[in-house]
C-alpha cells in the first residue's frame, strides 16, 4: 500500500513537471516566434525603406543626369546661337564694308574730273598749264538747240541774238554745272584754296549791258557759297576794246586788235590781290590757237600769281 502511494506521488510530481516543462517550451516557442516576427518586420521595413530610398536615389541620379544633359544642350545651343549671331554680324559688317567701299568709289568717281587737258607753252605762254573743261563744244548749228553746251554759252553771252526768255533757265543750269565742277577741280589740284578769276569779255566793261555780263555774275555767286574758294572775279577788268574773235569771221568782231602776246596786260587792269594766290582762271570757251586764254594766264603769272589752273565750260572740237 505504501508502495502504491509512493508511486502515485512520483507520478503526480512527474506530471506536474511535464506540465510546467510544456508551458516553458510553449513560452520559449512563443518568444522565439515573437522575436522572429519582430526581426522579420524589421527586415521588411528595412527592405521597404531601401526600396523607397533606391527610387529616390535613382530619381536624384536621373535628375542630375537630366540637368547635365540640359546644361550641355543649353551650352551647345548658346554656342550655336553665338556662332549664328557672329556669322550674321560678320555678314552685316561685310555688307557695310562693301557698301562703304562702293560709296567711296562712287564719291571718288564723282570727284574725278575726266575732262582734263594741258595747255602747252607757246609764244603767248612760257609754261605748260593744267586745264579742265566741262564738255566738248561743236561749231555749227548746235547753238540753236536748247539744252546743249553750245546753246548755254550763246545764251549767256546774250549779244548777237538775245535770248531773254531763256536766261533764267540757262542761269540755273550754269549755276548747277559750276557747283558740281569747281569742287572736283579743287580736289584734283590739291590746293587748299583757289582764287577764281574770269577772262574778261573782248570789249571794255562799259561796252556791255548788265545782262551781257551774266557769266561773270553767276560765277561770282557760286564762288561765294563754295568753301575753299575766294572770289577774284573782278581782279581782271577790260578797259580797252579788242576784237571779238568768235564774231570776227563774220565781220562782226568790232574794233580793237586781234590777240597778240601781251594783249591782256595792255588792255586790262589786273589787281595786285592776285599776288601769291593760286588762281583758277575761268572762261566760257577754250579754242586752241586763238591764244586769248594763254595770254591771260601769262598775264596773271607775270603779275605775281603763285599758280594758274584753267577751266572752261566748253572746249572747241577742231574740225579735221
From TrEMBL:
**Single GO MF annotation:** glycosyltransferase activity
Could you list this entry's UniProt keywords, alphabetically sorted.
Answer: Coiled coil, Glycosyltransferase, Transferase
Q: Which residues form a coiled coil?
A: 70-102
Q: Does the keyword Coiled coil apply?
A: yes
Recorded protein name is Amidophosphoribosyltransferase (Modular protein)
The species this protein was found in: Candidatus Nitrosacidococcus tergens
Question: What phylogenetic lineage does the species belong to?
Answer: Bacteria, Pseudomonadati, Pseudomonadota, Gammaproteobacteria, Chromatiales
Amino acid at each position: 500500500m505504501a508502495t502504491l502511494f509512493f508511486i502515485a506521488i512520483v507520478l503526480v510530481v512527474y506530471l506536474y513537471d511535464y506540465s510546467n516543462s510544456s508551458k516553458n517550451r510553449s513560452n520559449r516557442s512563443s518568444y522565439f516566434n515573437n522575436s522572429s516576427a519582430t526581426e522579420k518586420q524589421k527586415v521588411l521595413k528595412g527592405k521597404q525603406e531601401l526600396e523607397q530610398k533606391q527610387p529616390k536615389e535613382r530619381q536624384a541620379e536621373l535628375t542630375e543626369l537630366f540637368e547635365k544633359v540640359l546644361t550641355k544642350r543649353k551650352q551647345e545651343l548658346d554656342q550655336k546661337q553665338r556662332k549664328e549671331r557672329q556669322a550674321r554680324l560678320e555678314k552685316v559688317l561685310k555688307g557695310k564694308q562693301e557698301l562703304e567701299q562702293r560709296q567711296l568709289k562712287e564719291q571718288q568717281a564723282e570727284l574725278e574730273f575726266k575732262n582734263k587737258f594741258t595747255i602747252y607753252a607757246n609764244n603767248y605762254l612760257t609754261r605748260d598749264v593744267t586745264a579742265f573743261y566741262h564738255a566738248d563744244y561743236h561749231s555749227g548749228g548746235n547753238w540753236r538747240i536748247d539744252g546743249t553746251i553750245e546753246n548755254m554759252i550763246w545764251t549767256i553771252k546774250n549779244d548777237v541774238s538775245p535770248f531773254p526768255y531763256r536766261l533764267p533757265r540757262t542761269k540755273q543750269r550754269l549755276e548747277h554745272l559750276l557747283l558740281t565742277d569747281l569742287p572736283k577741280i579743287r580736289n584734283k589740284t590739291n590746293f587748299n584754296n583757289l582764287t577764281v578769276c574770269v577772262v574778261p569779255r573782248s570789249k571794255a566793261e562799259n561796252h556791255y549791258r548788265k545782262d551781257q555780263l551774266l557769266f561773270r555774275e553767276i560765277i561770282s555767286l557760286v564762288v561765294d557759297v563754295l568753301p575753299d574758294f575766294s572770289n577774284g572775279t573782278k581782279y581782271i577788268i577790260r578797259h580797252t576794246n579788242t576784237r571779238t574773235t568768235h564774231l570776227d569771221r563774220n565781220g562782226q568782231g568790232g574794233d580793237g586788235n586781234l590777240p597778240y602776246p601781251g594783249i591782256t596786260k595792255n588792255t586790262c587792269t589786273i589787281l595786285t590781290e592776285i599776288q601769291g594766290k593760286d588762281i583758277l582762271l575761268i572762261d566760257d570757251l577754250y579754242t586752241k590757237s586763238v591764244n586769248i586764254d594763254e595770254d591771260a594766264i601769262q598775264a596773271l603769272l607775270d603779275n605775281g600769281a603763285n599758280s594758274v589752273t584753267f577751266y572752261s565750260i566748253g572746249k572747241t572740237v577742231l574740225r579735221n
